[in-house]
Amino acid sequence: MTTVTNGELIASAERVLHPHTVGDRVFGNVASALVTEAGAVHSGVCIDTGSGTGFCAEHAAIAAMVTAREYRIAKIVAVWRNEEGALHVLPPCGRCREFIRQVDPGNLDTEVVLGMRNSVTLRDLLPFNEWPSPLD
């Protein structure tokens, strides 16, 4: 089990949070950090592009993890800073929840950070994760 606290993981994500505007798009305004079962920390940022070709910060952090040949996520977080400078922890969107699950089935037990003192397992966020049985 990981010894990285929610606050430490949030700070890791915050360190790579550097929004950059290109035209009407913003890159890097959401950042994610994860810690693997082996204890490695990986981070990434979102890339907002047109026509659905961009990706979420969680995808970038997971891609860095997979590049390092790791697949099991112990804990993950995403953060965003509003115009007033307040930092927010964001729950993963449905696409990210499914992506985390598909990288490794054991990731259903990933701890998803929702705040400094609040987290839940991916299993709790994605309760209907098994392929359904055929209709009678």
Q: How would you describe this protein?
A:
The protein has helices at residues 6-15, 57-67, 94-103, 122-125; strands at residues 20-22, 25-36, 41-47, 73-81, 87-89, 111-115, 118-121. It has 136 residues and is α+β, with helices and mostly antiparallel strands. The protein has one domain: Cytidine Deaminase, domain 2 (3-Layer(aba) Sandwich). Strands 1, 2, 3, 4, 5, 6 and 7 form a 7-stranded mixed beta sheet that branches. β1 (20-22) and β2 (25-36) form a beta hairpin. The longest helix has 11 residues, at 57-67.
Tell me the overall shape.
globular
SSE string, helices as H and strands as E: HEEEHEEHEEH
The overall pLDDT average reads: 94
Quaternary state of this entry equals: single chain
Q: Please, how many domains?
A: 1
Tell me the structural class.
alpha+beta
CATH architecture label name: 3-Layer(aba) Sandwich
Could you tell me the CATH topology label.
Answer: Cytidine Deaminase, domain 2
What's the helical proportion of residues?
A: 25-40%
Report the top-level CATH class.
Answer: Alpha Beta
Uncertain segments: none
| Strand residue content | 25-35%
Question: What's the N-to-C terminus distance?
Answer: 42 Å
